[in-house]
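Aim 2 progress update. The chain analyzed this quarter is reproduced below.
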Amino acid sequence: MTVSKFRHVFGKPATKEHSYDGVPITRSVHDNHYCSANPCFIAVVTECAGGGSFLVLSIHHTGRVDPQHPRVCGHSSRVLDVKWNPFDDHCIASCSEDCTVKIWDIPVCGVQQNLTQARKTLIGHSRRVGLIEWHPTAENLLLSSAYDYKVLLWDVSQEGAVLRYPVRVVLMPIHHRYPSETLLLSVSFNRDGSRLAVTSKDRRVRVLDPRTGRILQVSSSKSHKASKVLYIGGLKMLLSTGSSPWNHRQIVLWDPDDLSEPLYEEDLDGSAGVLFPFYDPDTHMLYLAGKGDGNIRYYELSAEKPYISFLTEHRSLLPQKGLGVMPKRGLDVSACEVFRFYRLISVKDLVEPLSMIVPRKESGIFQEDLYPMTAGNQAAMTAQEWLSGINRSPVLMSLKPGTRVANPYPETPADKGLTRQLSWFQMGPAVGTVPRADLDFMEEAFLKEQLAYQDAKYPREVSDLSGWQPDETQVPLWTYCCTPHCCEPAERPPPTTESEVRIAQLELDIKNTRNNMRATF
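Predicted structure tokens:
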């Protein structure tokens, strides 16, 4: 028998100084992750009185989090989940009990004041939206599932701040009948996004064509009640977690082309928490983390029987309410880190990074066998190309520092222009390396974007105080001399009208109150 090179993998939790302390984690009872991470930011759904909000922190903003830290708080009811766009580290989607899905643009410098104006609001559901998932290869495609028994597919690149019509209706009630198979508990795309695996209220596993909604396979096993499902990329298998008829937690492997009988079944324990599965296709490692558990189990999967072999587990005395996962491109390859969780520990108001480390004698150098080519942050195609029937595998990248792999798929002129603008604003080219005409074009595009953001967020009519709030989320535009979420208020002339005097007095009261609150912490 071949000895696994991952048999000694161990979990290394971050110290409190390198964790995120003082985060008021949501008390929602939904079986979601409540956390999403990328190499720039971490987002955590938080508890708040009235409305719904989530916190976006810089990935390096560790330590004690200010209780008054600005949040993304545009939903009118509790936020149920958040997901970062896999191809844009500054774009995040959120779903809520207010029946909407919102797309947010996070500034490069992070959230500096409460963000209430979303870039897009998707209005297509009539009940709370419980699940969202980005397409793995096509840009701007977002799947949403709600308690109105509808599963919708959206193209968030469409024009307009409010989108009412999805590009595809994957599932919906027929003739006022609400079948349990359309109320989803979890979703998972395969590697190229051509198939969608789901678990439903009837606790069965189904494989769908996401373009048409046609059900291709349905599990018929009566010995397994499925809760979560996950495509096992590269091995042509599905994995589901759930419970047995004796209420023991189970993991089951399936052939996605034949769900009549499972390939493998294993009972784990008698705990009641939902098992969240996470799979790393580069190392073929499976991680199982239970809601309310303190441990995380690791397995290694293979294409031959017995398909799955237990490696070890990480144990902690603190239970996790949810977990976020860092994409592979955000890992520390010099420390032989192959996976990273962000554990939400609600009893301590703590978000704890947990790194999975492969011990090596020569740490600090790039280990070729641990980091093969992996899915990167470039989309393989546009939403319209995918909707027309094209399937493409993810664009791969190398994790070796200094290595760049060309995109094998042709880029559109719009993509090239966007890449050029982003690279200039984020990387900062040296003087003289960019033609003056391109600089003028980029500067003009940047200013237009900022003005459009300000016009959408800040009212021009100072006399209209109907939507004014004492949390500085809708401060009039004239109080700022540049981008409002990045800079401090500028000097302004003294108030002249009665409304301006009232606004100035309220602003002063708010400032004094906040100073007093900060002094008490």
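The two ends are 59 Å apart (CA to CA). The longest strand covers residues 337-345. These observations will guide the mutagenesis experiments scheduled for the next reporting period.
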